[in-house]
Amino acid sequence: MTHPRDRVDRVAAPVPSATAARSSAGSAPAGAVPAGAAPARTSADLPLVRARWVLMGLFALNGLTFSSWLARIPSVRDALELSTGQLGSVLLAGSLGALATATVAGVLVTRRGGRIALLLSTVGFALAYVLIGAGPTLGSVPLLAVGIFLTGVSFAVGNVPLNVESASVERRMGRTVLPQFHAAFSIGAVLGSGIGAVAAHLDVPLLSQFLVTAVLGTVWRVLSIPHVVVASRPVRERVLADVPATPGVPAPRAPRGRGLGSALDAWREPRTVLIGVVIMAAALSEGSANDWLALAVVDGFDQPEAVGAAVFGSFVAAMTVVRLLGTRLIDRYGRVAVLRASGVVSLVGLLVFGFAPTLPLAGAGVVAWGLGAALAVPLGIAAASDDPMLAAGRVAVVSAFSSVASLAAPPLLGLAAESLGARHALVLIAAAMVVSVSLSSRVARVEPSEAGTPAPAAATSAGPRSAPTPATPTAASDDPALAALVSRVVGPVGEDGRASAHELDPVYAAPAAR
Predict the structure, then answer these.
(1) What is the CATH classification number for the domain harbouring 56?
(2) Which residues pair with 498 in a beta bridge?
(3) pLDDT value at residue 25
């Protein structure tokens, strides 16, 4: 009997292209790497290295622009003479925009590709920041609300291809690096907060600041997009990308799209939905700290605002350090063990902060909270992206769960804080952390054909791992030319005339990170 781990390793093993196979005749198989040895760096690795750093830049840009706007919220509030409640209602427009767009983003990336999604996101961000600057300048709350709504829409549309491409880079590198992209966002957020603070100190007009933000952000994104889109190409393009042309053989037909319903199939996958719950708990933890931690320190310990900001800074710093350096832990111990341990550390840190009698002890709890909260979102994104052909729809689903947390947490915690105080109200999110720890096994790496797609009815009696159905099959039997060419690239087509989508996907043909 074949051990399940062996099956995973075979699926993730490098698949030589037709060109590589021909050039390696008489030598070791293409893509073969001695056990325990790192692949030799070649010129073919340069696009991968470039894609990694360009993606890092895009994540950092998102953090920078978003935080530079948040740092000017006091100026926006004063310019429009908004109350705290009115401002909170306007800010919710961003979460509503992200939630409304999350599922559509998955469909868009699946059908049209990440390049189109990123370009639409670029246009949306540019318009959004112009409106955010124009609203307070012209005294128009509706303009501001539309701008904030567009930031949520643009973030949701761009977030799916960015995470899909980051997971692709991780697969092709053969080791865990996805948390580092999220660390880049955190670093950008710190820089953006500083830029916003300096702009506020110099009394830079809001319209001027956000016009510059729109222009520079647009240029940055437009220059970056051509270097990062590989895994989030349209499905048809990916399936046929590595099928070589053969003289005398008709070109195969591109597989037909399966419609909107197929793009939404991820919502019916138990594993994907439960990963979404894990990410929702993580987003609730991180988002609650962003919104309420500084205020909880100020009110709970009767400290000045600067102390609250410093404690929040320690939370962000702890998260950033773990996202940069904690990837080795994932490679060594695996996703499940790291997520489970992270959840426990985060839970203990939150409880210490909530009930500590002194500020230094509470500060230590905040650091532990940040250390534990760092890796949950990247691990969930990586798990949702195990099958490259279905990654876009699944990332969109788990992103929607994150948007729900961002939408519900501020008002619910605000209501609880009125009676419990902000510090004790934060303890309520411990329940979500417990749920996340209990579901940690769902982020385990699986074969693409098993990442949420049920086995056929005839095989279910033999267990969930028997005769798995390919997640997104390509009907090679419908086109003899395609069947012949697929056989040359990935070996004989199965008895049912179908080849798994991941076998046809050159992006997935790379060593899998453990």
Answers:
(1) 1.20.1250.20
(2) 475
(3) 39
